[in-house]
Design brief:
Layout (H helix, E strand, L loop, with lengths): L3 H5 L4 H29 L4 H36 L1 H7 L11 E3 L2 E3 L4 E3 L2 E3 L2 H7 L20 H30 L8 H9 L3 H16 L3 E3 L3 E2 H4 L6 H28 L18
Antiparallel strand pairs: 1-4, 2-3, 5-6
Helix pairs in contact: 2-3, 2-7, 2-8, 3-4, 3-6, 4-6, 6-8
């Protein structure tokens, strides 16, 4: 008998849900804050856009600062339940004690090595097991037919962590400026960085899903059913894929158009510019 509740609320659901919800708030928060920052830079309805920017920035920055904590919880869970995924994320071909954390690097899957990476000794052992001298299982202890694609998983993980680290630094800069009681309006460079960050959260989010889905291959149900065994033999299934693709593409166009229209239709109540007396100079 199939128990759908047990499937939905399995041992991974909490760490995955926590990490994903924070990622969604962070990505959306930075995207919205970036759009309003752009409007401020263009001096369009600054009163409205400044207030909207501050609201969005709260969700974005708090989410970004909490994300490393949820990521640490998720990484420790993956180390226990899916060691092959963790090994692919870090391109750890050999079991090591202690295991270094890799920053960057080019994966050579044929030679099973990583070149030009920066190594932080013992850091992976600590992140995975809370002990700088702990052993981390490498791909050499996992059957080769159960290895996930290492290069894709590693690069996606590096993109996710790299962008996440950048957004954490941006959040710290933002709070530092607020702590010094300075106005963001006088920091055009900071507003420009927020504009630059508009797509970054979504890129990190998608990279994270690549890590999750590619990193668990070849399993669709981990350790039970392989992806190749789950493909349906029903004819015409491709048409449903095309249909859903068309629907989501159409919805994306509609949402973008509506959001653009909403941004332009700022209430006339806020059509003025912010009084310089309400801001503080550098």
């Amino acid at each position: 008998n199939i128990d759908p509740m047990a499937a939905m609320f399995n041992k991974a659901w909490f760490t995955q849900a926590l990490h994903m919800c924070l990622a969604a708030f962070t990505a959306t928060g930075f995207a919205v804050a970036g759009v309003h920052a752009l409007m401020i830079l263009r001096k369009q309805n600054q009163d409205f856009h400044y207030k909207a920017f501050k609201i969005a920035a709260v969700f974005a920055t708090i989410g970004a600062l909490l994300q490393p904590i949820s990521g640490d919880i998720s990484a420790k869970d993956v180390a226990q339940r899916q060691p092959a995924k963790l090994a692919a994320m870090e391109a750890l071909y050999k079991t090591e004690k202690p295991a270094p954390l890799l920053i960057g690097g080019i994966v050579n899957e044929k030679k099973k090595e990583v070149n030009y990476a920066i190594e932080i000794p013992g850091a992976l052992s600590f992140l995975a097991h809370g002990d700088f001298n702990a052993e981390v299982k490498g791909l050499d202890q996992i059957p080769e037919d159960e290895h996930p694609p290492v290069a894709i998983t590693h690069y996606a993980f590096q993109i996710m962590v790299g962008i996440g680290s950048f957004l954490v630094l941006l959040s710290l800069m933002y709070f530092f400026i607020l702590w010094r009681n300075k106005s963001v309006l006088n920091k055009r460079w900071l507003l420009k960085i927020f504009v630059f960050a508009i797509p970054l959260g979504y890129i990190a989010l998608e990279a994270g899903w690549v890590v999750t889905e590619v990193g668990r291959q070849p399993w669709i149900i981990y350790g039970i059913m392989r992806t190749k065994d789950a493909v349906t033999p029903m004819p015409g299934i491709a048409w449903s894929f095309y249909l859903f693709t068309a629907i989501y593409a159409s919805l994306s166009i509609i949402v973008i158009a509506l959001l653009y229209r909403q941004i332009k239709m700022v209430p006339t109540l806020y059509s003025g510019s912010i009084d310089s007396s309400t801001t503080k100079a550098d």
